[in-house]
Amino acid sequence: MPSPYRELLAIPGARLFVAAGFVGRMSISMEGIGIVLLVSAVTGSYGIAGAVTAALSVGYAVGAPLTARLADRNGQHRVLVPLVLANSVSYAVLIVFAQARLPVWTLFPAAAAAGLTQVSLGAWIRARWSHVLRDTPARLHAAFSFESVVDECIFVAGPLIVTVLATGVHPAAGIGAAATFTLAGCLALAGQRDTEPPPRPREPGARGGVLGNPGVLVVTPVFLLLGMVFGAIDVSGVAFAEDRGHKALAGALLCCYALGSGSAALFYGARHWRAPLSRRFLIGLGLLTALFVPPVLVGNLYLMMVVVFFSGLAISPTIIPGFGLVERLVPPRMLTEGLALVSTSIGIGVALGSSLSGRVVDAQGARAAFFVPLSCAALAAAVGLAGARALRRQELTRDVTAAKHELSSRSIAE
């Protein structure tokens, strides 16, 4: 492992909260598939299963930023314990209702409750990194890069685990394992108080939420479109492999894509970058658009594996400075909320991109579906470019404020 990552994990308490975060957010790549496998097994309908999964996604989209706001104001451990216990109960109710063959409508409030109480744990872990690295902010990009690698590992391993359990053990085993991962990881994280960001109660006279921040207003829709890229490439990849007569190789195709993103994250985090975050973010968006052109031109499955590896190389250099911008531009009292908001935007985008790409596959075929991630990447770049001036202006303002604060602190110390 490159030295920047060894140095990160040598920070007191870092290994513990990284491990807890890995276990706790393993479920993010398992819940949707687990619900589809469970509900389709007991109802015989993939349409119903997809609708129940959508209820989970809607609940998550509503709840994640709100619970993150509570964590900012009251401390992570005070919010995490009751929240994850409620989440476990919600999943247990969903499983019982499904297995008992209760009326289909009962599955929807149970799934919505599970989504509403689901923690955007990746945002909470990134907030911890921001806290423990507050005296060495230059190392934060390495920490966010490391977390991107963790995310890629989760999205490779999670679907495999949930599918094996649901098809080989019991239809409810997959979603049950996902809920167990969440419970274990969140309880372990709640017990780690030394690395927890301090609570920051709402300041008197403070108005508005994180969406009042100009930078967040730019980054959030970009992350939504990036989520659409991710969701679309998953569906397009599976359809393409099946269309070429090798559906069993769909997993290998998507693994090549994830491997490209993970490799880029490791390289990106190991280097020191002088360019401003906003510029790196825009360069990443442009690179992402360019590297999603080749997949629409390729017709061979094995060549596609090579092509999507290179497409994946642009993911992390876009996502990482995007999270960095949120960390830089959002006030500390709203940090977890801001990170959770953009993380949730990705999740919503994945659902939208999967749905849109699926419709294109049905209407135009698998190769045409690769125009969906390309179009979403181009639109994301356009939105980022339109908001570039606002991002840079706010970034400069924050840099000047930080410099003045540092000079003031030195003067007081002397």
Overall outline: globular
| Contiguous runs where pLDDT drops below 50 for at least 5 residues | 403-413
What is the CATH homology-level superfamily of the largest domain?
MFS general substrate transporter like domains
Element order, helices and strands?
HHHHHHHHHHHHHHHHHH
When the domains are counted, the total is 2
User: Helix coverage percent of residues?
Assistant: over 70%
Work out the strand percent: under 5%
**Cα-atom radius of gyration:** 21 Å
Number of strands: 0
Compute the average pLDDT: 84
Helix vs. strand class: mainly alpha
InterPro entries: MFS, MFS_dom, MFS_trans_sf
Subcellular location: Cell membrane
Membrane topology: Multi-pass membrane protein
Protein name: MFS transporter
Task: Reconstruct the topology from this structure.
Elements: H1 3-9, H2 14-24, H3 31-43, H4 46-74, H5 76-99, H6 107-116, H7 121-132, H8 140-168, H9 173-190, H10 214-243, H11 250-270, H12 277-291, H13 301-312, H14 316-329, H15 335-364, H16 366-369, H17 371-386, H18 388-413
Helix pairs in contact: 2-7, 2-9, 3-4, 3-8, 3-9, 4-5, 4-6, 4-15, 5-6, 5-9, 7-8, 7-15, 8-9, 8-11, 8-14, 10-11, 10-14, 10-15, 10-17, 11-13, 12-14, 12-17, 12-18
Membrane topology: Multi-pass membrane protein
Subcellular location: Cell membrane
Domain Major facilitator superfamily (MFS) profile: 215-414
How does this model look, in words?
It comes from Actinomadura fibrosa. It is a single chain. The protein has 414 residues and is mainly alpha-helical. The chain has two domains: 1-197, Growth Hormone, Chain: A (Up-down Bundle); 210-414, MFS general substrate transporter like domains (Growth Hormone, Chain: A, Up-down Bundle), CATH 1.20.1250. It is 78% helix and 0% strand. The chain has helices spanning 3-9, 14-24, 31-43, 46-74, 76-99, 107-116, 121-132, 140-168, 173-190, 214-243, 250-270, 277-291, 301-312, 316-329, 335-364, 366-369, 371-386, 388-413. Helix 3 runs antiparallel to helix 4 (46-74), helix 3 (31-43) packs antiparallel against helix 9 (173-190) and helix 5 packs antiparallel against helix 9 (173-190). Residues 403-413 have low confidence and may be disordered.
